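for the record, two folds in this file. i put them one after another cuz i was lazy. first one right below, seq on top, C-alpha cells after. the second one comes after a little note so u can tell where it starts
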Amino acid sequence: MICAYCNNDTKVTREHIIPAGIIRLFPECDLAFDFVRKKAYPGEAVIKDVCPNCNGGVLSSLDSYGKNFVETYFLQDFSEDMKFEIKYDYHTVTRWLLKMAFNSARVENADVSWFQKNLDYIMGKACLPSCKVSLFGGLWMNMSPVPSQEYGNLKIQFIREPKLLPGGVINYETCQVNEYILENAAEFPDLHSKYLFRLGAAMFLLFMWDKDAEVEAVDSYEKIVNHLFPYKLFNQDLNSVILECCTDAFNCHYIALIHGLAGMSISQACLSRLTGDKDIEGMRNNFYKVFTSSI
C-alpha cells in the first residue's frame, strides 16, 4: 500500500488521527468533535495508510513536540483579562498542526491535494512550504454562566472551515442569532482552506493559501485578522507570542463560529443584559446549587 506521507509502496501501520500523547493529556475526552460536519472521532481513532518509518520517525517527533507544547502551556484555566506569553518553534508547531489536519482530511475523504503539494515541508525535507501558511492562536475560556461540563468534554476539537464573523452572529437588539450574518461569513481570496483546533485551552487557527497567493496579499490578510479578530499571528521570524481570550459567551461552546472583537463585545453585552449584570463566574460556581436547591 502507498504511504500517505512518503508515497512509498510498503507495509503500512496505524497512525493516530489525534496523537496518542494528546489523548493521554485529556483522558476524559474519549471523543474529538467536529460540529460543522456533525462528526465525532473516537480518541483512539486511527488511519491505516502510513509506513513504519514515517510513523515512528518524523511524525512521532512532531507528536512529541506537540504533546510537550500543549502540556507546558495549555492545561491550565485562564481568567478573562489574562494575557499569556508562550514560546514556540514556528515550523515544528506548524508542521504538527498540518499533519493533524492532513490526517483528519483523509479520514473525511476530503480534498488532500494541498497537503500532498506540501508533504516535503510537513516531513521536514523542505525549509518552507510550497504554499503559504498562516498560523494564529488564542486562549479558550468559558465566558458563559454554564459550567463547561454541561456541554460534555470538548477539550479536543478539530474544525474544518470554521466561519469568520467579524461582527459576531448575535443581534444586539434581540440577543438572538442573525441567520443572514451566519450564512454570509467573511472569506479571503486565495485561501484554499482553514482549520481550527482546540486542545485544552489552546486555540489554533490555520490558514492554508493557494499556491498562487501573493506574499503581499497574504501579509495584508494576516494584518486584517490580527486587527479584527482576537487571534494572534505566530510570526515565523520570532519564537514567542502573547495570546489572549478568543471566545465569548455565545461561541465558547461552539468554536466553529469565530467572532471578531466587535462580535465578542456584542455577545458579552447581550449576556450582561440577559443576566442583569450578574457575576458570571459566580453564576457558574453556583450553577448546581441553584438547581439542587429547587429539588
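(here's the note) second protein begins now
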Amino acid sequence: MSIVHSDGLGQFQQDNATPHASRIATRWLQEHSSDFRHFHCPPKSTGMNIIEDIWDALLHVTEKRSPPPCTSMDLFTALQDSWCEFPLGYLQTLVESMPHRFVSLLCTRGAPNTILRRCTSFSGSSVYI
C-alpha cells in the first residue's frame, strides 16, 4: 500500500466476494494487516464496491469502440486505453460517494443508531445523519 499511498493513508476495501474470501486471500490479508487500513464490507454489497462502477464504465466505453476488439490482446489494449482516458473527476466522484454509500448500506441493513449517527469515510472525515 505504501507504493500507492506513501503517506500511509491508503485503505483496502474487501468486498467479501467468494473468490476474494478464500483461505489464501484471507491469510495474506491477515499477514499484511499492519500495512494498510482495512474496510470490511458485508458480503454481496455491490453498492459499496466502486470497482463495479468502473468496470461498468469500461465495458460501455469498450463496446462503443469501432472497430470492436476482436482478440484478447485487442480487448486488453482497448481496456487500457479506456482506463487512461477516464477523466480524473469521474474517479474522484466515485471515491467521494463512499460515505453516502456507507450510510445507505447501514440504513438498509438496520445498523444500530449509534453507528448510524457517525460514519467515518475513507478520508477520515465523517458523515452525520
